[in-house]
Specification:
Structural class: alpha/beta
Strand order of the largest sheet: 3-2-1-4-5-6-7
Number of strands: 13
Order of helices and strands: EHEEHEEHEEEHEHEHEHEHEHHH
Distance between the termini: 15 Å
Length: 335
């Protein structure tokens, strides 16, 4: 079986720090290669893969701002689609734009929908509903207007995360600095619970950081910048708990699964996919307010960290994700 895995070109695949879609595309590609599948990864030229690599640019447009994002995306997607006949199947991890080529090739395209940036993009998915093969990354992130093959949870390489039974005493916020992700709420939770908070992530909203976050930084509330894979494991594993007070219906939360793989429980606002990722009162707490979250911090030592690791390993491993996708590939190819 020859499979083309299409990744975005905002960041390197896998990313150096931020880039969740690129990370999942990498995990899919490398997991398939380990199963003996002939994989070509379409990504940036500095991407890392054990398979074949196809690219039109050396660096992604978020890392090399001389690129025009739309131009680069068009060149990148067309590079794959003009070679579509060379593959048995295309696995699209690049949103709706590749679907506009799908009527021009006989090669089946499975599209993992990593979230809806806006309801305005749904008409493209609807146009190809009858011929496309859509996969959701959580049951909560489904449009009632679309048909789906299955839900496949994002999978992580469990070898990259070490279980830590003896954590430190700090709370951790791990994600992009943006109102959606609840950075300011995490600060309030830390203050109410009297705990130190480490904030790690790229600043995606500069004004939000300047107005809501930076003025509150002190010995208790510390911003440590973005954390790549080399820091992530230690940061997550040493934390008493991960705070995830999201202000939107998040389709998935890689950092939530990553934390639990290290044994670290998660305190999250009960929105989006969080009830699918977290077993309430077993691998963390699902809460609705800052006050409830602060109370949960006081109960965090009642959570068995081994249960967190076992749950995440069973549900969110690369092996499980690749198994699930291979079943879908065979289903589509035999149709």
């Amino acid at each position: 079986m020859k499979v083309a895995v299409l990744s975005p070109v905002a960041w390197r695949t896998p990313p150096r720090h931020y880039g969740p879609w690129e990370q999942v595309a990498s995990n899919i590609a490398e997991g398939l290669i380990k199963r003996g599948i002939d994989v070509t990864l379409f990504a940036t030229g500095d991407s890392i893969t054990a398979g074949k690599l196809e690219f039109v640019c050396e660096k992604g447009y978020e890392e090399d701002r001389t690129h025009d994002a739309k131009v680069l995306e068009c060149l990148h997607i067309s590079n794959l689609m003009e070679k579509a006949g060379s593959f048995d199947l295309i696995h699209n991890n690049f949103d709706f734009l590749p679907l506009t080529y799908s009527g021009l090739t006989n090669t089946p395209i499975i599209t993992t929908i990593h979230g809806f940036s806006s309801p305005k993009i749904i008409p493209v998915y609807k146009k190809y509903n009858a011929t496309g093969h859509y996969v959701s990354i959580s049951n909560s992130d489904r449009s009632p207007e679309l048909d789906y093959l299955a839900t496949v949870y994002n999978g992580l390489d469990t070898n990259h995360f070490d279980f830590n039974e003896q954590p430190g005493e700090y709370l951790l916020y791990f994600g992009r600095i943006h109102p959606d992700k609840g950075t300011a709420e995490s600060i309030e939770i830390a203050k109410k619970s009297g705990r130190k908070l480490l904030i790690a992530g790229i600043v995606q909203d500069e004004s939000y950081f300047k107005e809501k976050i930076e003025p509150q930084l002190n010995d208790q509330i510390e911003y440590i910048g973005s954390a790549g894979p080399e820091k992530r494991n230690t940061l997550l594993g040493d934390a008493l708990a991960l705070l995830h007070p999201i202000n939107f219906n998040e389709p998935f939360g890689l950092s939530v699964a990553e934390a639990m793989l290290c044994g670290t429980p998660v305190i999250a606002f009960n929105r989006g996919s969080m009830p699918e990722l977290i077993k309430d009162k077993e691998t963390g707490f699902l809460v609705n307010t800052i006050e409830e979250a602060a109370e949960a911090v006081g109960q965090i030592k009642n959570i068995n960290r081994k249960d967190c690791c076992s749950w995440a390993t069973a549900q969110f491993s690369c092996d499980k994700m690749v198994d699930d996708y291979l079943k879908l590939y065979k289903q589509v190819l035999s149709a």
